[in-house]
Specification:
The chain has helices at 9-20, 42-53, 66-76, 86-107, 125-138, 148-154, 158-161, 175-185, 192-202, 206-220; strands at 31-35, 56-59, 113-116, 142-146, 166-169, 239-242, 249-251. By secondary structure, the protein is an alpha/beta fold. It has a five-stranded parallel β-sheet with strand order 2-3-4-1-5, sandwiched between helices. A two-stranded antiparallel sheet has the order 6-7. The protein is elongated and about 65 Å long.
């Protein structure tokens, strides 16, 4: 599989939401909430954006409390000598984040704090207040990434929810998205009819689309591929992906039945 990142419609809507932060009225309204079902490419998108921008990326853990969050933040900021006191740790984190924000502004690139799996902390007042504190004091873009519970839980914290007017729901891939993913990632050419089947059977979940691309690649490398690329008929009888609900393999048929 090609080591590239494909910009899907979800990615474009995410970056559009970030660009709206530049024109916000209230400086403290600098949070973005990203949610959607598992397998729609949220984590891959966030990690790519973080790598491209130098954004601080954290993955929340179930046991996070205030101290653990600040320690993880300082570790990601490459602090080796941790201050002992809570106040000193928080002050150091703010200082480093402020310096990095200034560096990013000088270099003309975005910068922010991203917390993945934020559902796991979105019902913990002390942690969420610490996140709000970091965001407020530096007016720094803060992206909270999760699933359905995230948006619901944030309603319990009006002081945080009001700072997140920009919300992005990751949706199933369109056929154009699937075509872009297959064309961009697959090392062998793939025919339009097989791409359409991948999109249909995956139900737009990028995780399954990538799984199918791997299967097509393995098959295509053993095949003398024609000018159209690997077709649906070529792969008849081959396993394309697994059903996410049953775990059973989905096998390519030459044509739809019924």
């Amino acid at each position: 599989m090609k080591p590239v990142f494909v910009q899907t419609s979800n990615y474009k809507r995410f970056t559009t939401a970030l660009s709206r932060l530049d024109g916000r009225g209230a400086r403290e309204a600098c949070m973005v909430v990203v949610d959607g079902k598992p397998g729609l490419g949220k984590t891959a998108t966030m990690m790519h954006w973080a790598a491209q921008t130098g954004c601080i990326y954290l993955r929340a853990q179930k046991g996070w409390d205030y101290s653990w969050f600040i320690q993880e933040l300082l570790t990601e900021l490459q602090v080796t000598n941790m201050p002992r006191g809570r106040r000193e740790r928080f002050r150091l984190a703010l200082e480093i984040l402020g310096d990095r924000s200034v560096d990013a502004e000088v270099e003309g690139r975005p910068f922010g704090l991203m917390i993945d799996e934020a559902d796991l902390i979105s019902n913990k007042p002390e942690v969420m207040e610490a996140v709000r504190g970091v965001s407020d004091l530096k007016h720094m873009p803060t992206i909270l990434v999760g699933m359905g519970k995230l948006r619901d839980n944030l309603r319990r914290f009006p002081q945080i929810e009001s700072r997140a007017p920009n919300k992005v729901e990751f949706l199933p891939a369109t056929l154009d998205d699937a075509t872009a993913l297959v064309s961009g990632l697959c090392e062998v050419q793939v025919a339009a009819d097989l791409i359409a089947l991948i999109w249909k059977l995956s139900r737009g979940f990028s995780r399954e689309i990538v799984e199918a691309i791997s299967a097509v690649e393995r098959f295509g490398h053993r095949l003398d591929v024609g000018p159209q690329g690997v077709t649906r008929a070529d792969m008849a009888g081959q396993v394309l992906m697994n059903n996410r609900e049953t775990g059973k393999p989905i096998i390519v048929t030459e044509a739809d039945h019924g």
